[in-house]
Amino acid sequence: MSKGLNDSRTDFPILDQEVNGEPLVYLDNAATTQKPVSVLQTIMHYYEHDNANVHRGVHTLAERATEQFEAARDKVAAFINAPSRKTIVYTRSTTESLNWIASSFGNAMVNEGDEIVISELEHHSNVVPWQQVAKNQHATLKYIGLTADGELDMDDARKQITDKTKIVAIAHASNVMGVVNPIKELAQLAHAHNAYMVADGAQSTPHLKVDVQDLDVDFYAFSGHKMLAPTGIGILYGKPEILDEMEPTQFGGEMINEVHEQAADWKESPWKFEAGTPNISGAIALGSAIDYLNNLGMDNISAYEQELVDYTLPKLTQIDGITVYGPHDPAKHTGVLSFNLEGLHPHDVATGLDMDGIAVRAGHHCAQPLMEYLSCEATCRASFYFYNTKEEADRLLDALNEVKEFFANGTSKAERTV
Amino acid sequence: MSKGLNDSRTDFPILDQEVNGEPLVYLDNAATTQKPVSVLQTIMHYYEHDNANVHRGVHTLAERATEQFEAARDKVAAFINAPSRKTIVYTRSTTESLNWIASSFGNAMVNEGDEIVISELEHHSNVVPWQQVAKNQHATLKYIGLTADGELDMDDARKQITDKTKIVAIAHASNVMGVVNPIKELAQLAHAHNAYMVADGAQSTPHLKVDVQDLDVDFYAFSGHKMLAPTGIGILYGKPEILDEMEPTQFGGEMINEVHEQAADWKESPWKFEAGTPNISGAIALGSAIDYLNNLGMDNISAYEQELVDYTLPKLTQIDGITVYGPHDPAKHTGVLSFNLEGLHPHDVATGLDMDGIAVRAGHHCAQPLMEYLSCEATCRASFYFYNTKEEADRLLDALNEVKEFFANGTSKAERTV
Amino acid sequence: MGLAKLNELYKTVIIDNANYPRHKGQIADPTGEMQLKNPTCGDLIKVSVKVDDGKIADVGFTGSGCTISQASASLMTTVLMGKDVKTARRLILAFSKLISGGDIDDEDEELLGDAAIVGSVAEFPTRIKCAALAWHAMDEVLDKTQKS
Amino acid sequence: MGLAKLNELYKTVIIDNANYPRHKGQIADPTGEMQLKNPTCGDLIKVSVKVDDGKIADVGFTGSGCTISQASASLMTTVLMGKDVKTARRLILAFSKLISGGDIDDEDEELLGDAAIVGSVAEFPTRIKCAALAWHAMDEVLDKTQKS
Ligand SMILES: Cc1ncc(COP(=O)(O)O)c(C=O)c1O
Ligand SMILES: Cc1ncc(COP(=O)(O)O)c(C=O)c1O
Fold first, then answer.
1. Can you tell me the distance from the alpha carbon of A183 to that of A200, in angstroms, rounded to the nearest whole number?
2. Does the domain at residues C3-147 carry the CATH identifier 3.40.50.740?
3. Interface pTM (ipTM) of the complex?
4. At CB < 8 Å, which residues of chain B contact D?
5. Whole-prediction pTM value?
6. Top-level CATH class of B5-30+297-417?
7. CATH second-level architecture of A40-294?
């Protein structure tokens, strides 16, 4: 069996196991990715040699911890071509990054009658925080629609984004439809109307080269755990002059400059946003994950995943009775493949696949407005990363056919009002 | 050399190293503790066998991850004798827990003219969030003073807490003064005035048996990293009926029940508070840390630390020219020892100790109002955990005398307007 | 191959109940109703019950979802129809134990009848919630009925 | 023992400058002032400078803090007094390099004189910020002076 891009598969010990008596095929990478040995070793090394609280101590361990914590920030900055470490705020996750943007910057910028524009394919984490801002500020939340192919409808974008728009917030890549959205164009559109551009990079940063200065976004959010790093660490990038103006949403600990009994003021960005002890080992491990990704090369990762999609998508769409969501042109499709088999509930399909050792996700993928839009309640989703292989794609395709057969002949045309 | 409580020292590989050519003596446990092998192994095992996103998948790994994540919640609940897993919310840290309480519950409960009561010995994380609530709601933030000995002045508490008081928020144990505050009594006092009681358990939960039902607190907050768990995981306990009413502060991801284009509603507690992918490995590792602590026994830990204090405090106070903060009666003192040497800046002292392999903290310990109150700018702080030993206490005492001598004779009576 | 194990979950009775659900539909004059949803997957079950003189005189369900949730709802209505409320709640508890891999009384197992077959879901932990949905909803309805 | 290494940091010149700081106090008619604080430890330095015809005609500092921050401020004022602004900024840059463990020009090293001795702080990473405080403050003042 092939070993993924550059034999990288061997760096992921978890993949080498049997699940339900079959070799594991992990295709739930859009939910979270697995971690290479080098990242795990970074965590262990940190806790076995250098662990201390950051920014606080004058002793040697504290200095080592601080040094590594800030060096990781520099790696993140370089990875997305941010202008400096000062623009990189550590958060828990994409969700927290988007919430901080919405609840601080959003509530400050948006006034009564203003509009916030998102799209029909957003993840809940890029929907509900904006619903809250709209509710708080008596503003309007508008949705950009999709083309028949499942891509963002840029004609509609040009209609929805107007001089009333204060914020445009769009996923860089969709976690359901497998499309990459034209963030640079959207940012231009937003800026032409004096609106700010927020991009949700949860599904893009792990898979393609991101350049926040070229995209000219005002904010960019992503999660470590979807790009080889542990859970509990995420990133909020903001343009320096915007972060300087933005108020923190959490207070206390080392974010503070001076505290008196009745008042306090903050340090400068990004530290003013990081209240309390941060996820130090998570941040350092994210730095290590970025080293790993850089070593493979983001362009190579994109190209390799494209190969997997070129191979899989046409075969998948040929399965009788399948609906595959998003563009059918593999060139327009990322390694996120959502589908339904006619007459079968995605949960039953996923259980069938799980019995065959294949991990896919079934559900609404935290995108209920999109499910409403597509008039379906749930889908199956298989999502690739660079350690997946064509052999694994074949295992998925074969298993799907068998699951179909099982429910057709085994016993059933089992119900489902899906 | 002795090996700490039950030889536990050997479980902490990081302690077995030289710093600046001397065996490390880690006495910065109030900032963060070291991690035992069993906790590190839990993290590794999780990432090498079970890693997946929680609550979202129907595949085997997702089920394993979810199962462990929720089992850890049960361990936390049992550890502080909370009535059920539903009262245990995962956060990043004590700081985040306190911020969520203040910004959601606090802003909802406190109205114009109301009062919030904290104390002179609070950590910034239990000061600044309440300053924000007071500012937002045009309420008053009041401080309970300290006795000459550095204990909470309960006479003053009875004066400060009145029918105007809506919230009383106090550290269970101080991170500077080495005192344990009478939270149960304060809760009674608060409740007698229909106020709510918030306890900051960052410095108590790692060191003594906590029973939130016996204390009858409405909220309790603490951090994993100060009790053997990794950074990036903290706990917010709330009484069930209060959490049910309290609104989340972050939105999106799996905290949601239903999302439509213009509105959404939430799951039940505690899940409604946990927006986005949580720190899964951190939570599971916290469960493992609790196993470790239970195995030693919290009462044994308290007793052992008391022995260290009984041994060290009298010797420390005898050093010529030293000021030791907090009660001088060892029975009233926790393993947090703050002090200053006359004429020496704490930074210079800490550097001296660091050169001798001894890690202590120097600074304001995120307690600037307390520093103002004590009229000093900074202190040195040595803080014990159960893996520390009397031999290490001796090393500290010896080194302090040498540092004193160095600056006295070596060359100097080096300045310092401290 | 792995799929063979599927037969353990999707037994004939289950497939049959999913394809031809019993008591599906809204009943007349319900004394209690409850809709529950599994937010993760969108499975939705609404149960209605008519309690008369301490006995379940009529019961039905509506909703949509996977094979397991539909079959389990169908089997539940069959079991509970005609039972007195106390027995019904005992059986719900027994079912709940069964699907979490616990042991139950022989008597309860007999009363559960075909529904006990759903117990095999215990080996498919990712699907226990699907099996439990209708029973949870019914338990809440009956709890309210008893209290009022 | 470990403390022996302390001599490398707390050299006689440093202790001397901490005990008997040069140019400590507020100067008359400053053209620029800047207060900086190290929020972690509370070290506080305020520098004042009088620039006349492109030259530093007078310079002073006030504040409190540890031996290193006080000594470094004192040594800085001694070095910069009388220098033209361009040279001063070059020397600040050189000092900044030196304390981060970098190499600098022989000429700059000579001009820094005793202040170069603070360079040994490079081996004490936890104290680099203390050494840098006054110099950072001065750099910001001179930057403003040049721009205005
Ligand atoms: C497009 C998109 N946005 C946001 C998120 C939320 O990420 P996290 O759960 O790490 O906060 C996800 C992942 O589930 C996603 O796919
Ligand atoms: C009493 C007290 N409260 C709160 C905190 C904040 O904890 P964290 O930094 O983990 O949020 C600390 C620790 O620094 C503390 O000692």
1. 10
2. no
3. 0.92
4. 20-22, 345-348, 350-352, 354-357, 362-364, 371, 377-378, 399, 402-403, 406-407, 410-418
5. 0.94
6. alpha beta
7. 3-Layer(aba) Sandwich (3.40)
